[in-house]
Design a protein that fits this description.
- The chain is mainly alpha-helical and 50 residues long.
- It has a domain of 30 residues.
- It is built from three helices and no strands.
- 0% of the residues are buried.
Length: 50
């Protein structure tokens, strides 16, 4: 995703919401889900290193 897109309203608002304590609390309430990295933005090379 283009870094500029992260600053546009639909995307930045979504990231803001999923980083909120209330959202993370809801995710933690789901069995098998971990909210620790929710909202973390990483490049593909960070997620899938060589």
């Amino acid at each position: 995703m283009d870094k500029k897109a992260l600053k546009r309203y639909p995307v930045n608002r979504t990231v803001e919401l999923i980083r909120s304590p209330a959202y993370k609390e809801q995710v933690r309430a789901l069995n098998g889900y971990d909210a620790a990295s929710t909202g973390l933005i990483q490049s593909l090379s960070e997620v899938f290193p060589n």
